[in-house]
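Notes taken during the Thursday session

The instructor put the following on the board and asked us to keep it in front of us for the whole hour. The protein is Purine catabolism regulatory protein-like family. We were told not to look anything up and to reason only from what is written here. First, the residues (185 in total):
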Amino acid sequence: MAYTVKQLLESKQFPDMRLVICKENLNQEIKGIRIIEIEDMERYLTGGELLLTNMKVYFGETEREFRKHLNELEKKQVSGFIIKQHPDMVQKVNYYDILLKFCSERNIPVIEISEDEYYWGIIKYVILQIYDENIARLIYFKLTHDNISNMLLDGENFEDPTKNILFLLSSMIGNPVALYYSNYK
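Then, after some discussion, the predicted structure tokens were revealed:
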């Protein structure tokens, strides 16, 4: 049985999760789940994914470039967007409003979560709903590997990669993570 956006919302696993746009297309099947980590994420999608984003990757894009990416994502028939909006972030282009208008016109569900919610809890839950446990573990491994690789290879994160990786691991497993070096002098 296919797992849908409606089932995710009705699961009550994430109490702060709320539907913002598109109540009529909630039976959209979720075929995968990905975090939008690069502007042209559409190149790496197979179709039907639920996409998680805070839209920071688009902050350097013009409105036209952003709309082009949205059109490409629509061609991949994404099942919806989960948005983590940061109200204190001000940018030249209001990506959030553009996304809402775009999705409203095309009946693509948009769900909003609080900025305190970590993507990894949602990812774990969704992949366990759409895949058997072994496949879910492989997919989770791949997502983890890709995320850590991007973090290490991204020039912007070279200032403190250890801190960033520890934060990522902490959010993924839901427990604090620390490094301890016993030979530290």
